[in-house]
Amino acid sequence: MSHHIIDFKDVHFTYPDGTKALDGISFRITHGESVGIVGANGAGKSTLISHMNGYLLPAKGTIIIGDMHLNKSTINNARKTVGVVFQNPDDQLFMPTVFDDVAFGPLNLGMTEERVVERSNEALNTVGCSHLKDKPPHHLSMGQKRAVTIAGVIAMQSDILVMDEPAASLDPKSRRQLINLLKEFRHTKIIASHDLDLIMDVCERCLVISDGKVAADGATGELLTNEQLLEENNLELPLSLQNR
Amino acid sequence: MLNFDKEYFNIGYLDTLAYKNTFVHRLDPRVKLVTTIVFVFMVVSFPKYELSKLIPFFIFPVFMSAAGEIPARFILKKLLFVSPFVFFVAIFNPVFDTAAMYNLYGIKFSGGWVSCISIMIRFTLTISSALLLVATTSFPGVCRALERLYVPKVFVVQLFFLYRYLFVLAEETMRIVRAINMRTFGRKKYGLKIFISTIGLLFMKTVERSERIYHSMCSRGFNGEIRLLKMDKTGFADIVFAVTAIALFIIFRRYDIARILGELAL
Hints:
The structure holds two protein chains of two kinds.
Chain A: E1 6-14, E2 20-29, E3 34-38, H1 45-52, E4 60-65, E5 68-69, H2 75-81, E6 82-85, H3 89-92, H4 98-108, H5 113-126, H6 142-154, E7 160-164, H7 172-184, E8 188-192, H8 196-202, E9 205-210, E10 213-219, H9 220-223, H10 227-232
Parallel strand pairs in A: 3-8, 3-9, 6-7, 7-8
Antiparallel strand pairs in A: 1-2, 1-4, 4-5, 9-10
Chain B: H1 3-17, H2 23-26, H3 29-44, H4 59-67, H5 72-90, H6 93-96, E1 100-104, E2 107-110, H7 111-137, H8 139-148, H9 153-182, H10 192-219, H11 236-254, H12 257-265
Antiparallel strand pairs in B: 1-2
Helix pairs in contact in B: 1-9, 3-7, 3-8, 3-11, 4-7, 5-7, 7-8, 8-9
């Protein structure tokens, strides 16, 4: 079976304070797909992402990553398969220099130092940040930080790339660079975002999440032009489609 | 600019200096660290009344500052900032040690004054060399050198995180202070209540952030052990630097160079 598959079957999750975040969510994402996850605040997008690499485990239901059922014993393997880029780069860039941070994942995969250096350099080249490798993360702009976090995941050569609000806090040019970069990737991509234009640009498929369930699943072009569906889920047309 | 903002950019400046590309910056961090430790050890090993033998040791910080293109004014400002702590320790020596030691043009100096000046000189030498080490090596470079010199990794990793998140915490504090300033309309005193709630808010944010950091570490394969690359290599220039510097320190420690030069001049 391909390692690039994520299959959620009737997944439920409730936070300790009683907030029901996922309420029987089911979907299947297959090899090479680019899937956007959209929904209002509190719809369950971030909780869903936290389940994709086992940071949270479902209270009920099953998650299949590639050919393994996600549970405590398979978490580490699932994390090799699914690379997550978090919303705030400062949470992800925890090492003292850019290069150390990109090398963090490959080192944990048990590679030799030469291989780690090679992979980290390749990943930094891919995102156009090789000139920043000796810099500490707090000297970078938000766009550069975002690119480096992506390099950190690319260096691990994960089969599936999951991103939470990748365009948050980016200026228009950095946002466009990010979109172009994402379009080049051949990975299976899952992008959770409020930026519907970005989803339109990068993802062919879209999941609309509402109250911890899939409210709609289909082609991005169809779902994000459906005003009634968007209205019902506290969303609106992408900016590029408004006032036409 | 607000005071807190100024302090933040001050911290960042030391960090910026560390990324210059001079001969001193290019030296292996381990070599600079070991040389600085030997320097500090030599300086503090003198008897308490020693003055003249300490003077030649100023060559080391002066060389590091000049060759590393580190502004002397910046280092002096930092020294001044921390000097009160040492001054309060040293100033009690003249009170307790009143026996006359030197007579300079009719002015008698007690042993207490001599040891007080000696402490201040040692403070200037040791703290300036430590500051110059960080300014020419970078904090992560020093940490990496510590790790390669077999300092326990747990300790080194704590230093790494301290350095990385000091700036994030400072930025967060800066945002909170700015938000308070925007709505206090020039009032200088915020009151204890606001101060306590600010500290509480910072604490909560720190806890939340630490959870998110742990999450992102786990997602990249962290299993309780931080693995670090061993990238630094010691070259010929590093060995020449270390041998020359340490040889000079031994000569300065053994012979009273200032006195010899003074006698020659006279």
